[in-house]
Amino acid sequence: MRTWIVCAGWLCVVSLGQAQEHAPTPAIPAPLHSAGAPPAAEAPPVAATTPAAEAPPSQTVTITASSEQKPPRVRFTAYRESYLTAKKVWQVSSGSVVMALRLIPAKLSATIDDVRVALQGTGAAVPIKVSEGGVFVVPLNDDIAAQDGSFFVNKGKGELTANIVIQPSVARDAWNVTRIGQVLHDARRAVRAITPWYKRPFANEVQALAFCAAERGSALQLVEGEQLIATLPMNEPAVNDINQPVFCKIFDGEDRYPGHYRVVVPEQATVVLL
Fold this sequence. Notes:
Helix content: 10-25%
Number of helices: 3
Structural class: alpha+beta
């Protein structure tokens, strides 16, 4: 399910601007002597020594800093707009879903395999965890939002763009049938809350929640206490948040299983809103 508002895993296309080169830090001049201060005294001459007493020649060691240790220095987009949208998603959904950004190459030469992201205000840069495919959850940092902070990346100007992704925030071991229905309800509310009114007639709502794996053969288990009630194969084709084909067990919120049945999710499975 994809439109310009809702795409795989509910992607809302937004224009977040192109990366901008971060202005270099001006060089700091060396301190000057005060006009009234006397110059430093010269060191006394060193007495000659015999060859046997001479110190061994000093060794020059060149230290090269790794680029991986440097924080990203190219401004990607302002933080405040993403912060306000992510905060609304969190509040409207009571924390059951979160807003993420999916980074997408905007040039044929761009890659995201090694992309790094940092959030910076007036203080030190805060590293942001980026998952496979260039997706990261937008953090809610009131202080940096008040400082007009920005996201920075380790890519060149104009190499990346981004889409909004709405993701469930339920812990893997906390799913049950009731929670599936609640997350669907909350996700639909969140999408409506962040979609401008003039775009709502053209926007598709979240239709389903899916537990997905990269290959066929996985299955969910419905459990009551310690008793296995049902095994649900994950074999329905879909695409995940980064447009990769996956195989899923899809729930539309109208499933007639008792709400207290616990859902046991395979370790390799991901949860996607469709």
